[in-house]
Amino acid sequence: MHPDPYTTSAKYYDAAYAAVPELIDLPFYLDLAKKTGGPVLEMGCGTGRVLLPIARAGIEIHGLDGSPAMLEVLREHIATEPGEVRRRIFIHQGDMRTFRNEHKYALVTIPFRPMQHMYTVEDQVAALQTAAFHLRPGGLLAFDVFFPRFDVPRPIGEEMLEIEWAVPAHPGRMVRRYLRRESLDKVQQFFTASFIYRTYEGDVLLSEETAPLKMSWYTYPQLQALFLMAGLEVVEEYGSFNKTPLDNDASDMVFTLKRHP
User: Fold this and answer.
1) 93 and 23 inside one domain
2) pLDDT for residue 1 is more than 70
3) Total of domains in the chain
4) Residue 246 per-residue DSSP state
């Protein structure tokens, strides 16, 4: 068994991303789930940041993730939900490249970058094929990746403070998450980095934990080729979750797709 690389990040995940006001993907995915009516398969569901609001909206949703640590946090959240919400949620631990079950879905989602943890063409196509396999006739796949910004310098070895948040149970205590980039592979299109979680009481450092990070990035023509290889075609594409055009000012690349007829 390989160690779970998300063991440390799972502990901080919910608080960290609750402190990111510009993370505005949830309304996009929630609206799609309501329009399709479900059921939904979310690939890379993590701790349930997107999954739980969809279930609370009355829609059946299946969550898939490969991280036992992330799913443990999700199960803790589910246990606090009302019975009618719990009954709409089905959890699967598995690999998004190879996962198969007998259900077909009106909507398959891969929200908030799980596709950027696919590092080879074979893995990228396999993940998209998993999504395509589970679509009902007329069903939609929706996912996003970040828009690569080659004009923004990304220093190697420097720490950058990304997020900080208060610890409600301990007044005066703060957690700060730093990102330190460690390598950049321009040919294979990925970078490696570390998240550094430091907990402070005032100015006193109480603890420090580190978690690994590796992310690929995509160009638009590359994604078009992957869609062809996976038997998918674009329905809509946007440059942000506000549905702005996918152009040079884009912050994200957001797609809805369907299977080739």
Assistant:
1) yes
2) no
3) 2
4) S
What is the distance of C-alpha 15 from the center of its chain? 15
- In this structure, the answer to whether residues 108 and 236 fall within a common structural domain is yes
Give residue-wise pLDDT tens across range 37-92: 999 999 999 999 999 999 999 999 999 999 999 999 999 999 999 999 999 999 99
For the record, the structure tokens of 174 come out as 């703060």
Beta strands 252-259 and 135-146 are antiparallel
Strand boundaries in the chain, DSSP class E: 40-43, 61-65, 89-93, 105-110, 135-146, 159-166, 173-185, 190-201, 204-216, 232-238, 252-259
Q: Is residue 153 in some structural domain?
A: no
CA angle 183, 187, 193 (to 5 degrees): 20
Cis peptide before 68 (omega within 30 of 0): no
171: preceding bond cis by omega (within 30 degrees) = no
Domain span at residue 89 reads 7-148+218-259
User: What is the rounded distance in angstroms from the CA atom of residue 182 to the CA atom of residue 203?
Assistant: 27
